[in-house]
Amino acid sequence: MKSLIAWSVKNWQAMNVIMVGVLLLGVFSLSQLRRDFWPDFELYVLSVSVEYPGASPDEIEEGILEKIEESIRTVDGVEEMTSLAREGMGTVTLELDPDANQADAQRVLTEVTTLIGQIPSFPELAEKPDIRMNTNFVTAIRVAVMGPTVAELSNLVDRQSSGSLLGVDDSNGDFRYDEEEAKAEAALALRRVAEQIREEILALPSVSVADLVGTPDYQIDIEIPEDTLRKYNLSLQSVAEIVRANNVELPGGTLRGRSQEVLLRGSDKSTVGAGIEEIPLVSQPGGAVLTVGDLGRVRDEFSVEGSINEVNGHPAILVSIETTSADDLIEVAEEVRQFVEEGSDALPSGYSLMAIRDRSTSVKNRLDLLSKNAWMGLVLVFIVLALFLEMRLAWWVMLGIPISLLGACIYMHFGGHTLNMTSMFAFLIALGIVVDDAIVVGENIYVHREMGKSYRQAAIDGAYEVMPSVITAILTTVIAFAPIMYMEGRIKRLTVVLPMCVGAMLIISMFESLTILPSHLSHKRSRFLDAMTYVLFPLRPLGWLLEKANAGMSALLTRCIDRLYTPILRWSLRNPAIVLSTLAAMLILSVGVVRSGMVPFLLLPKIDFGFITVQVTYPDGTPVDITNAATKRLEDAIWKVNQRSIDEKMTGDPGGFVQAVQRTVGSSGDEVGSSVAGHVGGLFIQLNDIGERTVSSDDIVRMWREESGRFPGAEAVAFGATPRGPASLPIEMRLMATGENLAMLDEAIERCKIKLGEYPYVSDIATDTRQGKWEYRIKVRDDAKAMGVSLADVAGTVRASYYGEEVMRLQRGRHEVPLRVRYPREDRNTLVSFNDIRVRGTDRMERPLNEIVEVDVQRGYSEISRVNQMRSISVVADVDETRGNAFNVVSDLKANFVPEFRKEFPGVQLQWGGQQEQTDETVNSLFVGFFFVLGAMFLLLTIQFNSSWQAILILSIIPFGFIGAIFGHIVMDIDLTLFSIFGIVALAGVVVNDSIVLVDFINRRVADGLPLHDAIIDGGRRRFRAVLLTSVTTCAGMMPILLERSKEAQVVSPMATSLTFGLALSTLVVLILAPVMYLVIAKISPPPSQASSG
Length: 1094
Fold this sequence. Notes:
Elements: H1 2-10, H2 12-32, E1 45-51, H3 57-72, E2 78-86, E3 89-96, H4 102-117, E4 130-134, E5 138-146, H5 150-155, E6 168-169, E7 175-176, H6 179-202, E8 209-213, E9 218-223, H7 226-231, H8 236-246, E10 248-256, E11 261-268, H9 273-277, E12 280-283, E13 289-291, H10 292-295, E14 297-302, E15 308-311, E16 314-323, H11 329-343, E17 352-356, H12 359-388, H13 391-414, H14 421-450, H15 455-480, H16 482-485, H17 492-495, H18 497-521, H19 527-535, H20 540-574, H21 576-595, E18 611-617, H22 624-647, E19 658-665, E20 680-687, H23 697-708, E21 716-720, E22 731-737, H24 745-756, E23 762-767, E24 771-780, H25 782-786, H26 791-804, E25 805-812, E26 815-822, H27 831-835, E27 838-840, E28 846-848, E29 853-861, E30 863-867, E31 870-879, H28 886-896, H29 898-904, E32 909-913, H30 914-945, H31 948-957, H32 961-972, H33 978-1007, H34 1012-1043, H35 1053-1084, H36 1088-1093
Parallel strand pairs: 9-26
Antiparallel strand pairs: 1-3, 1-4, 2-3, 2-30, 5-16, 5-17, 6-7, 8-16, 9-14, 10-11, 12-13, 15-16, 15-19, 18-20, 18-21, 19-20, 22-31, 22-32, 23-31, 24-29, 25-26, 27-28, 30-31
C-alpha cells in the first residue's frame, strides 16, 4: 500500500486529472439528478376489485371477499392481505413483502389471476374481477378546473344565446331558465372542459400521468314512471329489451365485387342521450310511434347524484398530475404552473384554472434550505481548519469534502437515485465526517514535516503511518450505517438510500485522503493555489486574519494541552474508578430519561406541507343536504380563522394563510370525502408556505376546531394536519375476530374508545366502520308463491326500479357509459313509490308489492374490513403533541389496559397499527442490526490491533456518545426521532475514528519502549489536535442546521442535535475515557511490547 501512496505522490498530475474529472462529472451528475421529497421506492400492492351493483357489504363479504381470500391465501410473498366490502364494491388488497422486486410482483400477479379464474362462481350480477398491480405514482400538483356558480349562471343576461347550457325551451318555443337542467348541463360542460385540460396537460413534455379525480362516471338513465308503464302495458324489463334491440351496430359481412370489397354493417346506434330519446317504444293503432322521449325522460349525466366538489366556492374538477420514477417533481410542477397561468385566458367565459396541492414548493424550499446550510457548513469547516492548520493544508483538506460529495452524486446519478430529503441528510451527515480521515492524514503529514523531512517524504511517510487506522476507521463507519439498510417496515423504503450515499462518500473520501491529498501536500508550492491567490485577491485580508488567528490558536492549543488536558489526563489515570463510575452513571441516567418518556420518541416528526383537512361523517343514509350544510359551516369557520390571521398578523400574506379551499360532499376518488355516499363530506385547505406564517398547521387545525364547534348527529368529525410520510396516525388499535367472536367486536370497540377518551390530549377518536343504511329485506309470502310469484321475480323488479335495468354499455371516447332504465328520480325517493311497484307472476297478473311480500327492516355496517381473513375494526386517534405524545399513551395502554382487555374479550385479537406498528418494526430491527454491526466492528478492530481487548475498548466508548445526544434533545426541547438515531449512528462513526487513531498511537509509543503511563499521555497529547479538530469540524458543519430557526428545518434538527451535542461530550470521552480504558485493559492484557518486557 505504501507503493500506491508513493506512486500517487510521484504522478501528481494524474491525481489532478482524476480530481478535476470527479469534480466536473460530479457537477454534471448533480445537475441531472431528479428532485423529490422522498426517495423513489417500489411499493408493490396488488388489488382485486369486484363490482356487485346494489349489494350490501354483508352480501359482498360472503359472496365475493371470502371466496377470493380462500383461493389466494397460499400465495407466497404476501406480507398482508386486507379486504374491504362497501355498498356495491368488494376489494381485496395484497401488500407484497418490502423486499419484493419486479419479478416477484409479476409472479404474484400471475398466480392470483390464475387462482381467481378457478373460483367456481360469483354472484350472477357481479362484474368480472379487476386484477391489477398498482403503480407507485406520487402526486406532484393538481389543477382545479373551475366553472361558474349557480348564482353566476342565473345572472347571465343573454340566456337565449347561450343555448342549452343555461335553460330549456318550453312547449311554446319560448326560452325559460330551469335551474336543475342548467346545473346538469353546466356539470357536463365542466366535465368536457376538464377532459380537454387533461389532454393539454398530458401533452406537456415533462408530464407522464394526469387523471381526473373526484369525478363520477358517465351514465345514461331512461326514467319512466310506473303509471306510464302500466298505461302502455310495459315494464322496465320490456323497455330495456326494446331499446337493446333498436340501438345496435352489427357487422353484416363483406360484399366482394370485381374491383373492390365492401363491408356491410347495420348501424343505428346512439351513444348520447338525445339519440336515445328518438328510439321508438310503442306503435299505436293509427300508425303513430311513441319514442323513449315521449314516454319518459333521458338523463345523460353521471352515476352519482348530488355529489359536490367545489374549490373556493366554484364547481370544480381536479386534474391530478403525478410523477413516475423518471420524472422530476419540481420540473413537472413548474411546467404545470406555467400552463395554468397561460391557459386560463383561453377558457370559455366563466371558467378558470387554479394550481393547488403543489408539493414542489415544500420540496424546493427544504432542498434549498439544506443546500444553503450545507454551503454555510462548508465555509465554517474551512475556517475551523484554517484556524488549527496552516492555510495551505486547510485548503487541501477541505477540498476533500466537495470531491467526496460530488463523487457521491456520480454514484447517485448512475445508480438511479434522486436528490431528496434523505440524500441531503446523507450529505449533511457526511459534511463533517468525510473530512476526518483527511484531517488525520494531513495533520500527520504536517507532523512529519516538522520532523525535518522533505515535503515528498513527509507526504509518503505521514500518509502511510496512519493508513491502517484510516482504512479501519472508514470501514467501521460504513458498517455502522448498515442496519439502516436492513430495517423492517415501510420506513426502510425512505431511508435505504442514506447508508448508500454515506458509504459512497466515505469510500471516495478514503481514496482521496490516501492518494490525492498526499500528492498535493508533497510540494512546497502549488501553481493552483498561487493562481487562486490572484483570483481571490479581495479576500486576502481575510486570509491574513486567518493566518494571524492560526498562530494564536496554535499557541492557545499548546497551552491547553500542557495546562489543562495533560493534568486532567494524569488525574484520570490515577483515579480510573471515579471516571468510569461517573460516566456509567450518566449513561444510565440518559437511558432512564428516554425510558421514562421525558424525551419522547416519534418515528417521524410531523412535516408541515401546508395542507390541512377535515372529514365529517354522518350515519349512513343521512340526506345530502345535512352533510352539505355541515361542510359549508366548516368552510365558513376556516375563513373566519383566516380573517383572524390577518387581524393578528400571523402571516405576511395580506390575504391570510388560506390559499384555496376544496369542499366535497359524497365525491369519490379523492382523499377527502372518498365515499360515494352523501353522508360523508370534507374540506381540503391549502395554506401558504410555512416560512410565510408564524403558526404551524397543527395550530391552525386547533383554531379551526374551536371555531367550528360541535356537530350534533355526526358520527365523526376528524380534523387533520400534515402527513408523516409512510407512518399513519399516532394511535391505531386494530381489533380482529372470527366466527362466534364477532359479537364481541362492538363492545370491545366501545371499551377502547372510552379508554382513549380519558387522555385529555387525545382527539379525533374514530373507527373505520359505522352503521350502514337501513335495509329492507324482502320475503315473498306463502300465498303469493302459490300464485307463481318467486323471490327472483320480486328482486329483479325492485332492482330494475331503483338501481335500474341495464340495457347495454356504450363506448363514448375513452369512457364506457352504462345505459339503464328505471323509475324517475323523484319516485325513487319515496316509500309510496316502493309500495306501488307492480310485480308479475307466472300467471302474467300484476300485483302491488305490499300485497305479496313481507319486509324485515335491519341495519348492517356501511363498510366491512378484513385483515388476513379475519373481520377487523380499527380505532384510530390523533395526539396533540404540544400537550402529550403517542409514545406515552401507547405505553400506558400496554401496561394498564391491554391485560384487562384481553381477559374481558378473549376472542378478540388486539394488534397495534399506525405509528406504533412502524416504530416497533423499525426500532427492533435497528437493535438487531446493531448487534451484527458490533460483531463486524469487533472483527475489524481485532484484525487491526491484533487484540480483542483493545477492540472491546473502542466499542465500549460508543454508548457514551448517547449521553450528549440525549442532553442535546433536552436542551433544544425536541423529541427523539428516527433522524435522531441517524445522528447517533454518525456520532458512533466519529467516536470510533478518533478512538482508533488514538489507540494506534498509544500502541506505537508502547512499542517504542515508553513506560505505559508515559505512552498513554504522549499518545493523548499527540492526537489531541486531530481528535479536537475532527469533532469541531463536524460540529461546524452541523451548526447552521442546529441554529436554523425556520420551521422548514424541523425534520433535520434532531439529527444535527444528536451529532453536535453528542460530539461535544464524545470529544472529552475519547480523550479521557479511551486512555483510562487502555490503562485498565492493559492490566488485564498487557500490550505486546509491555508483555514481552515483563
